[in-house]
Design brief:
This protein is α/β, with parallel strands linked by helices and 180 residues long. It has two domains: 130 residues, 3-Layer(aba) Sandwich (Rossmann fold), CATH 3.40.50; 45 residues, no CATH class. It is built from six helices and five strands, in the order αβαβαβαββαα. α1 crosses α2 and α5 packs across α6. It is globular, with a radius of gyration of 18 Å.
Length: 180
């Protein structure tokens, strides 16, 4: 699963980086500076994504910075505004609030800064690129793994972690329940 995720995010990131460098200063003139704003706490998923992006940006000769808003929308907006002040050329964001971040994304677009959403999309504006997981299939895979480890029947646990207030968590749960 780790390899599949890296296989999706890194090519998408590199494509957006190429587009960003073409629309702004050439690579010879300026080092590409990519900012990543994670909306939620650093769990394995976000750690893998942030580290994969960092490695890809640095391998391409760029600079990378990231922040984690821990579910605080105002903090995420402030983090992104700070990254703009730092001079980022591109933003990757996993928003805390898909609607609330739209004005900030629109402002970045007006400034010519490409925005790529990761895992969690936005509602109400276009972004340069979006990379997401198939959360329903992740739920199915988790159920298959659990059944393989614990066996079928009453010994099989039926629990998926993650708040079901998020659409992606509900999709994982639906996939899990279909298989269990």
């Amino acid at each position: 699963m780790k390899k599949n995720f890296a296989g999706l995010i890194i090519p998408a990131l590199l494509l957006v980086m190429v587009a960003a460098s073409c629309s702004r200063a050439s690579a010879a003139e300026k080092e590409l500076f990519v900012g990543f704003s994670a909306g939620y706490q650093l769990v394995q998923h976000w750690n893998l994504e942030i580290n994969g992006c960092k490695e890809a940006v640095e391998a391409a000769g760029g600079k990378f910075t990231y922040t984690v808003a821990d579910g605080n929308e105002q903090q995420q907006v402030a983090d992104v505004e700070n990254m703009v002040q730092m001079g980022i050329d591109m933003l990757i964001i996993g928003p805390c609030n898909s609607e609330g971040i739209v004005p900030t994304i629109e402002e970045l677009k007006r400034k010519g800064i490409p925005v790529m959403t990761s895992d969690i999309g936005v509602s109400g504006c276009e972004v340069t690129a979006h990379v997401a997981s198939d959360n329903y299939q992740i739920g199915v895979m988790a159920a298959e793994y659990m059944a393989g480890e614990l066996g079928q029947g009453p010994n099989c646990a039926d629990h998926m972690a993650g708040g079901v207030r998020h659409r992606r968590s509900r999709k994982r749960l639906c996939g899990h329940h279909k298989k269990v």
